[in-house]
Write a structure and sequence with these properties.
2 helices, single chain, elongated, mainly alpha
Length: 67
């Protein structure tokens, strides 16, 4: 089920939306590419709003931590 798959993906990437994760003043290391995850999650969320029979989910971004 398209909605179910999309929900699982969003659940697995929820941690990327926590503000502290991408804030260099609060977290070290911090998530450098949080904007990529926001874009990714928005694309996945579209499958919940507009489900299709054979979804082709976008590729998850590679996590990039500051050094």
């Amino acid at each position: 089920d398209c909605k179910s798959q999309a929900s699982k993906i969003l659940y697995q990437t929820d941690w990327t939306t926590i503000p502290d994760v991408s804030d260099p003043t609060k977290s070290n290391p911090y998530l450098v590419n949080s904007a990529e995850f926001n874009t990714y999650r928005n694309a996945v969320r579209q499958y919940i709003v507009y489900p299709v029979a054979n979804p082709v989910f976008p590729t998850i971004p590679t996590v990039q931590w500051s050094s």
